[in-house]
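Table 4 source record.
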Amino acid sequence: MEQLAKNLLALRMARKLPREKVSKALELSAKTYERYEKNVRDPSAPVLVKLADYYGVTLDQLVGREPLPFEMN
């Protein structure tokens, strides 16, 4: 899910959050979250829901089926 990885990075960067803070809030290791952002590993369905809730976006926005609520550069 390449678009998911891009969106995770864009959402985190737009909010100027360190990876460690996001991973801690989601109860994930920083390495696991990094693997999601680098498209090395796909999150499970429950983790996808947590990610969408954390960033305040829909699942469709998170996985790239709809645009994110901001312009990505």
